[in-house]
Specification:
This protein has four helices and six strands; from the N terminus they run ααββαββββα. The model has no long low-confidence stretch (mean pLDDT 92). The chain has a six-stranded mixed β-sheet with strand order 2-1-6-5-4-3. The protein has 161 residues and is of the alpha+beta class. The chain is elongated and about 70 Å long. The chain has one domain: Nuclear Transport Factor 2, Chain: A. 22% of the residues are buried. The N and C termini lie far apart (76 Å).
Amino acid sequence: MSTKTTQAKEGEMTAQNNLEENKRIVRAFIEAAFNQHQADRAADYMTPDIKWHGGTLGTVEGRENFAGLISAIVSALPDLRNVEQDIIAERDIVSVRAVVEGTHKGNLLGIPASGRHVKWDAVDVYRVADGKIAEEWAADDLLAFVYGVGAYTPPWLAQKS
């Protein structure tokens, strides 16, 4: 085998190892944050200047602020579970499709505790830099959440009088 071929294969293996390591980092973060409800441990997987992009919910900047957001979520949904359905990695990006569920026992998004079990789909995209999560783009089905807790009924689901 030529040196060029060997180097190319080694480069491919290194790239694949990096992708697998990035997936491992994201999975460990999700496990600590959303399944074990340990925002302080989840912070270990974040860069100090992490940015969480929540679409219409805005952007949260900084490790302490993002850990605070995680604490608020798991406080409101103390039995929260995030179950991975798919995970894909390319370059420094890891995308996760998950099903999230829990019992709404505290104020979340300005909605008081309903005691209802809620379940929704989420697609989260993470950027990993130097072994830490530097950014997250969260695309959760918030309509499913607000419907599940009884705060809103979409017109197409409302019963006709």
